[in-house]
Amino acid sequence: MGAPLAFAPTAQGFGISVVLKQGDPEKLLVRIRAEGEQDYGEPKTPMVLASDLAEFHFDGLDAGTRYEYQVVVAATDAEEAGEELLYEGSVVTQRPPGASYSIALISDPHIGANLAYHNQGDETILRAVGAEIAAMSPDFVLNLGDMLDFHEYGFNSPPPDGSVTRLAYLNYRWGLGDALRNSAHFTTIGNWDGENGDFPAEAIAWSREQRLLYVPGPKPTTYPEGGNAWEDYYAFTWGDALFVVLNVMTYTPTPHLLSFNPGVPDDWTLGQEQLEWLERTLKNATSKWRFLVIHHAVGGKAGDEINGAYGRGGGQAANVGEQAIVHRLMLDHGVQIFFYGHDHVFTDMVVDGIHYTEPGSAGAIWMFSGLETGYTQYWA
After folding, report:
1. Stated pTM of the model
2. Side by side, which strands form the sheet with 84-92?
């Protein structure tokens, strides 16, 4: 079912998630070797997490090294003709300080569970973006949120159950194509990913459970910088850069639904626990380069009040609500770039020497002008 998804790479290891369209995941094996070596190591057997899902974990590896892997189906009967090779790819372990590398940032593909539904992201655009990423083989792909889309069930409404979220994540993985062949994957929670803080707890839980299964990420103990148990905020160092991934959605309890129920621009929040963790993480930072990653600012200031309340505007919102606290922390602790998505354009705005940078959209069909976003310079 598309490329395996490599996740949570550390200096010593990484995980690989494999989804089968048909067959028994219990029969899968994965073996690895350092790039340039002739022989593969002994194959690993899977943790079977669902009827279509196997997960593998490797450790005891060398830092800053690309490891090639093979996914095979094991022969389980003496009459079978041996292993069947399903997929080959590679993963890079965590780069040490001073190493050079490339990464890919994508945002807002908006992929739904039913690809025939019209009012959601265009998977053909995601596949085209995925092909471009595959050609450059970055160390990792970092999605800035809105991986999924549930317009089919209402405006920023949760899906009816976790099976819908599962299908959307499977479509997202399929849409990325070979972008995942040689690159690990990291996620950010967006407002269409089914985990908004104004949703019922049960609805948040069923989307979260599917994310943890089908697009796993770092656990709180994966990296020294830590994170939370739901893998929805975390930080890691790669080479000379610190990446701090934040969740503006799940810990904001109020709705922000444009004209349906606009809310206000200044009540977005990370929640006290996440905000305190962010402050500790930045205080302890030693990396030369320091980046925050989030779906949108923790506040909004856009072309009008409604779009501002929806979290649009990037750097225009630097001093709105809790974003003012985040902006001050960035100033105090040497953060150079605030990466975000949500507005579906490419723009870069410098506020007090900090870049507020959005990389555009990898599939959203809705394009926003300066009337909505308030930007005077942007590329759609």
Report:
1. 0.97
2. 28-34, 66-73, 84-92
